[in-house]
Write a structure and sequence with these properties.
10% strand, alpha/beta, 48% helix, 763 residues, 29 helices
Amino acid sequence: MRAKRTVTKRIQVLKENRKKYASKSEIAVRDNAYREAIRQHPEASVEEQHAFGFANTLMRKKILIPEDDLLAGYLFQYSYNVNFPMIVSEDFDPADRAKFQMDMDREIRETKELCDDDPAAMKELDEFADAVEVWLIKHWHSGHTLAGYEMLLQNGFEGLRQRVLQQQEFCESDREKMTIRAFLTVLDACVGYVRRYRLETERQIACADTEEDVYQDGFGNRKNCLMRMRKALKNIETKAPESFYEALQLLMLANEMMYCENIPSGISLGRIDQYLYSFYKRDVECGVLSYEEAGMLLETFWLKCSCQKKAYQNLTLGGCDASGKCSVNDLTYLCLESASGLRVDQPSVNFRWTDDMPEEAWQAVLELIRTGMGFPALLYDPCCMKAQMRDGISEEDVWNYGFVGCVEMAVAGKENALTEAARLNLPKLLNLMLRNGKDLCNKKTFEMKHKEAVSSIKTYDDLERMYLEEVEDWVRRILRNLNRIGAMYASKYPLPYLSVLTEDCISLKKDVMSGGARYSSMGFNLCGVATAVDSLAAIREVVFEKQMITLEEFVNVLEQDFEGNEQFYRFVNSRTMKYGNDRDIDLLAAKIETLVSDILKEYRNYWGGPYRLGLYSVEDHAIMGMHTGATADGRKCGESLSNSSGASQGKDVHGPTALINSVTKFPMELSGNGMVLDVKFTPSLLDEETGSLALRSVIETYFRKGGMEVQISVVSGETLRAAQKKPEDYADLIVRVSGFSAYFCSLRKATQDEIIKRTEHTM
C-alpha cells in the first residue's frame, strides 16, 4: 500500500477561502454579454450570434487568480436567460446556487412555430406544458455535458482552430459557412481568454514582493507560483500542453469556459485519471513532478469545482482500457484521496468497477465510502458497456465511456446526451387514472386513455392492464413532444463551444445541437417505481383479495389523505406487500420498466439517436412527492416518492440481499440512461474488517446478478435527525441523495426526511 497523503496547509487555506471570491456583480455579466452581441449582429445566423455572445462573455467576465492558489481560474455563478429557454433569477447568493426552472411558455411557443399549425401537435404541446407544471412530468433541457477534454489536451485550442480553418475550404452551403465562422469565433475567444489570464499573471508578478515561502510545500512563494502559471499559460495559449501542470491548467480554464456557455447542471469531467495520466507519467519519469505535488494540484482543481454548489459535476475513475483490462493508476488513487481528504460535495465521484480491480483499489474505494459522503458511486463496467452497445455505441468507443450529471453514461467528446429530457411520475399517473384525470393537488384535469369510472373496474387484472396502457399512452405522448422540442432546439439554441469540443462536429461542419455529434441520445426516466408498485399491490390485497373496501371507497380515503382512517392507513402502510423484499411484487416493477424500455426502442429522437431508459431520480422523487396526493401504499400527500430503482423508504425490511434480488429482476442493461440503487448501512459496519469484507461481498454479489450501479451511505438516522434540529452544528455534513451527494443542511426538508426514512441495514 502507498503512503497515505494528508491535506497540506496551503490546501486547507484554499478550502477555507474558496467561497469568499463569489461575486454578485458577476451574475448578470453573461446574459448581458449575450444580449449585447445579439443586438450588435442582428443579421448573423443564430449560431454566429451565440458564438459572439460566448466571445463577449469571455472578454467581459471577471478573471481571478485567488491568493495562495496554484492554478488560475474560478467558477463564478451566472444567469442563463438568453441562449436557453430558462428562468433564472439574478438575485441570489453567488456563494450558493441560483434557482433554475424551464421557461415552458417560451419553449412551447417557440416549438409551436415549427408545427405548421398542426392542431393535434398544438394540443399535445399544451398538455405537455400542463403536465410539467403539476410535476406529472419533469422536463429539463441540457447543462449535462461531457466535452472532449481529452481531444483538447491533445490539440490545444490553437490546434482545434487549425482544424476548423482546414474545413473552411470544404464548405458546400451557406449553413456550413456560418457554422465554421461560429466555430472560429469561439476558438479565437478561447485563445484570447487564456491570453487574458497570462497578462494578469504578468501584472501580478510586477506587483509581487519577494515574500517568504510560508507553506514550504515545494511550490515556492507567491511570485514563484505566478511565474509558473505565466509560463504554463503562455504555452497553452499557442499549443497543446506538454506537462501535467499545463494540462491541468488548460482543463481548468476549458471547464470554466463551459460555464460561460452552458447551464451549470451536470457539466462533467469524464475520465480525468485516464486522459491526464500520460502527462503525469512523463513528468514523474523525468523527475519534474512527485506524487505529492500532483496530489496538491488535483486538490486545487477539486476545490475550484466545489465553488459550484449542487452543480452535479461528475468525474469518472477506474474502469477498463481499450484491451478490456483494469486501468487504475496513480491518478485514480490521487483522485480518491482528494475526495476523501477534502470532504466537499463537488465534484461527484463515479467509479467504474472491473472484475480484475486490484485489492489496493478496493481499499482506496473503501476509505472513501467510510467518510459517509456517499462517494463513490460504483458502476459495473460489463453491465454499463452492454447497455450502451444496445443503444448503438460502437465497441471501438464504448470502453472509454464516462458519466454525466449523476449516473448517465455517455462517450466523452463524441456524444450529445440530453439525459434529463423527461421523467414520468408513475404514482401520480396512477392517481390520475383513478380519478378520471383529475389532479387534486393542482386542480387540473388531464385527458386519459381510460375514462371508465373506478366502480366499473371489477378485477385487479383489469386495473393493472388499464394502468399499463395509461403508462404506454403517456410515454408515447411525451416522446412525440420531445421530438418536436428537439427540432426547436436544433434551430434556436446552438452550442458552438461544446461543438468544437465534440468529435465530428468540426469535420461535419455541424453544431452539436444540429446533429454534429457522433452519437445523440435523449433520456427518458421513471420516478416512483416502488411507490406505484406498492400502491397496486395494496389495492390488489385490500380491494380485490380481502375485500376490506371498494376501489371507489379507497379513492375517497386517498382524497382525504387517510384522515379519519388511521387504522386502515397503518394497515396499508406497514402490512401490505412492498417491493424490495424479494417477493412476487418485484415482477410488476420489472414489467413496468420493460414496457417503457420496449416503447423507447420504437422511437428515434430528432437527431436519429436512441431514447434511453433511466431509473434514477436525482432529487425529483422528493419534489414530485410534494405535488402528488396520497397513494394507496400508505404514503401521505406531499411525502417523498420512492427513490430511483430502490424500495420505498424503510420498506426493504429483509436485508440488502433481498433488496438486490428485487432490483435485479429487471435486466439492468435495458437502462442505458443509468440507474441508482441507494443502500444505507449503519456506520459501525465498517469498524471491523469482517464488516468491510461483508460489504464487498454484497457489492460483488449484486454485480454478478446483473446489477449496474450501487451507492453506499454510512450515516446514522440519529446524526441526520440531529442535523435537522441544529443545522449550524452540521454545516459540513454531506449525504447521498440519488446519484449525487450534497450538504445535508442545504437540502429541502422533504429530501432530508426521505433520506432519514431509508432503511439502515446491518449485516
